[in-house]
Amino acid sequence: MSAAGGETSPNAGRRGAATAEIVVAGAAGRMGNRIIACLADTADLRLVAALEAPGHAAIGRDAGELAGIGKAGVSVGADAAAEIKRDRVLIEFSVPEASLAHLRLVAQAGARAVIGTTGFSAPQRAEIAELAKQTAILLSPNMSVATNVAFTLLATMAKALGDEYDIEITETHHRFKKDAPSGTALRMAEIVAAALGRDLDQVAVYGRQGLPGERTRPEIGILSLRSGDVVGEHTVSFGTLGERLELVHKAHNRDTYARGALRAARYVVGRPPGLYSMADVLGLA
Q1: 123 Cβ partners below 8 Å, 6+ apart?
Q2: Is 177 in the active site?
Q3: pTM value?
Q4: Residue 18, pLDDT score
Q5: Which of 71, 159, 177, 249 is catalytic?
Q6: 172 falls in which pLDDT band (50, 70, 90)?
Q7: Which domains does the chain have, with CATH numbers?
Q8: 173 carries an active-site annotation
Q9: Of 102, 173, 234, 249, which one is the catalytic site residue?
Q10: What's the pLDDT tens digit per position in 142-168?
C-alpha cells in the first residue's frame, strides 16, 4: 500500500534538491557493487558510506575499488549505527535479518531507506510497515522500471482474460540466489490472484511431480529455476484451449535494478513517513 502519489519524471526528485547522501549496505555484494558504480555517474546522489557484515573480507577496502571504478574515498565499514544518520538514504539489497536491523536504525535516526531485499516473512513485513510510520521507506521486490510497468499490465491482463485462462509463472535466476520463488514472481502471483479475487495461499502450486491429477481451474502455478549466472527472467503465461498469451521480462544485467534503486532514492528524499513502492516512483499507484 503506497503512502503518497508518485512522480512520472525520472528526474523529478532532483529539482531544487541538494545532493543526497547515500549509504549502501551489502556494498561488496553483486547489487551493492553495481549501485556504487552507478552512483559514480550521478551528480545529485553521493556515496558517503558503504556497509558490510562484521568480519567480512571487504571491511576496510575502498568501496569504489571493490566496484571496479577506482578509488571512491569511502572505505567499507561495519558500524551501521554510526553511518545511518538523519536525512541520509540507505539503499540495501541483502538478507531480511540485516535489512530489518538497518531499518530499525533508519527509523530511529530519521534517515530514509530504499530496500530491494526479498524473502521477508509476514511478521517482518508487518514490522517494516510499523517502522514506515516513523520515516519514509520504499520497499520493492524488483527495482526495474520495466518490471514495475509489467506489474500494472498483469492486473489488466488477468481481469480481462478472466477465469477461463490457466496462469503459470516461471522465474529463472543465478545459482547463488537464496530464496525461492523470487520476490518478483511472488508479487506477480499476488497481483494476478487479487485481480481474479483468489486467495494466493489457497491456490498457489509450487511445482508439480508424480500424479497430481488434472490441473484445477483456480490454481496459480509458480516454478523456480536456478541456472548459472542468469540475472533474472520472469514469464507469466495465460493459457486456454486454443491460445496462450505470455508476458516476459528479462534483465540483461544488474544495472537496471541499480538505476531503479537510485531513482527510488531520489523519490524518498524529503518524503513524509510512509511505506512506498516503485509504483509511487513511476506514478502508477
Answers
A1: none
A2: yes
A3: 0.80
A4: 64
A5: 177
A6: very high
A7: 12-143+254-281 (3.40.50.720), 145-251 (3.30.360.10)
A8: yes
A9: 173
A10: 999 999 999 999 999 999 999 999 999
